[in-house]
Specification:
The structure holds two protein chains of two kinds. By secondary structure, chain A is mostly helical. Chain A has one domain: MYOD Basic-Helix-Loop-Helix Domain, subunit B (Irregular). In chain A, 68% of the residues lie in helices and 0% in strands. The longest helix of chain A is centred in the middle third of the chain and has 30 residues. Chain B is an all-alpha fold. Chain B has a domain of 102 residues. Chain B contains ten helices and no strands. The radius of gyration of chain B is 22 Å and the shape is globular. In chain B, 28% of the residues are buried. Classes of the chains: A mainly alpha, B mainly alpha. Chains A and B meet through helix 1, helix 2, helix 3 and helix 4 of A and helix 2, helix 3, helix 5, helix 6 and helix 9 of B. Chain A: InterPro entries: bHLH_dom, HLH_DNA-bd_sf, PRE.
């Protein structure tokens, strides 16, 4: 708790209330796959932030991997299949 | 009163005006949060009170990025763009070029409402630079300076929460010097967008893999003489 209060003092210009920060942290917690099931008042803000960073990192890695795979797969496809693929995407 | 039942709400177009306003102004100030608190209190007559309000928060934040329609639009645009990318760049850089294209398309889908999307769109060939910076910082700080209370080179006695906020700011494009409130908002939107990107690219990969020459169940590969 004290760390949060000192943070709002350090932020200086804008008055950031604890409620707003709590609300955003709980929103963030709902998005994280690991912390979604916990009751929100038992998870500290530091842990939520840590999980957020880890999750974003893993998502970036996944996107990189998928890009590599896509670049390999695209080598074998051609224009005749484009329309079919697009229709498959729309399902 | 039935319009507050989250499980029945149609995510794409059928929203109340209040929800539309919040979606557009979601990243400005705390006005969206106040409304959120009021709506959570109004959901008190539901059966599982806690569960529903938690699910409501979850569904609201991700409404933008979780619709099927949004994902379909994104994946078809991605498919078209990526085919053009292949013709332009050499085979060694194709992976990175695809990642850049995918990120820019994602930023475009955000319609400029968030800071990270604007940052992506306004800095085209910066992928190599960004990777170098991240590598140097992360390995240096996390290995050598473990204890947060010791006096560090640049910062002295930052509480661990502040440090994590900084790390988070570095990972989201364009958010290094943003206030913590905005940073958290950007993070929620960015995570949902990234999830949609992963889903769309996975679907695209599955379709393309399903149509490879070895596996012709779909009959996509015509025999050429």
């Amino acid at each position: 708790m004290s760390s949060r209060r000192s943070r709002s003092r350090q932020s200086g210009s804008s008055r950031i209330t604890d409620d707003q920060i709590n609300d955003l942290v709980s929103k963030l917690q709902q998005l994280l796959p690991e912390l979604r099931n916990n009751r929100s008042d038992k998870v500290s803000a530091g842990k939520v932030l840590q999980e957020t960073c880890n999750y974003i990192r893993s998502l970036h890695r996944e996107v990189d991997d998928l890009s590599e795979r896509l670049s390999e797969l695209l080598a074998t496809t051609d224009t005749a299949q484009a329309a079919i693929i697009r229709s498959l995407l729309m399902q | 009163m039935d319009s507050f039942d989250e499980s029945n709400c149609d995510t794409s177009l059928d929203m109340e005006p209040k929800r539309k306003k919040r979606r557009i102004g979601n990243n400005d100030d705390g006005g969206g949060e106040d409304e959120l608190i009021r709506r959570r209190q109004r959901n008190d007559d539901d059966d599982d009170d806690d569960d529903d309000s938690r699910n409501a928060v979850y569904r609201e934040v991700t409404k933008r990025w979780r619709t099927d329609k949004e994902q379909q639009i994104y994946s078809s645009k991605l498919f078209q763009a990526v085919r053009h990318v292949r013709r332009r760049s050499s085979s060694a850089r194709t992976g990175k070029a695809i990642r850049e294209t995918a990120d820019r398309l994602l930023a475009v889908s955000a319609k400029g409402a968030t800071r990270w999307s604007r940052a992506i769109l306004s800095s085209p060939p910066s992928l190599r630079l960004k990777k170098r910076q991240v590598k140097v910082r992360v390995t240096g700080c996390s290995r050598l300076r473990r204890k947060p209370e010791e006096a560090m080179r640049r910062k002295n006695k930052l509480p661990p929460v502040q440090k994590k906020l900084r790390v988070l700011g570095r990972m989201i494009p364009g958010c290094r010097k943003v206030s913590s409130l905005n940073l958290l908002e950007e993070a929620t939107d960015y995570i949902s967008a990234l999830e949609m990107q992963v889903r769309a690219m996975t679907a695209l990969t599955a379709i393309l893999a399903g149509s490879s020459p070895a596996d012709d169940r779909l009959g996509l590969n015509v025999v050429r003489s």
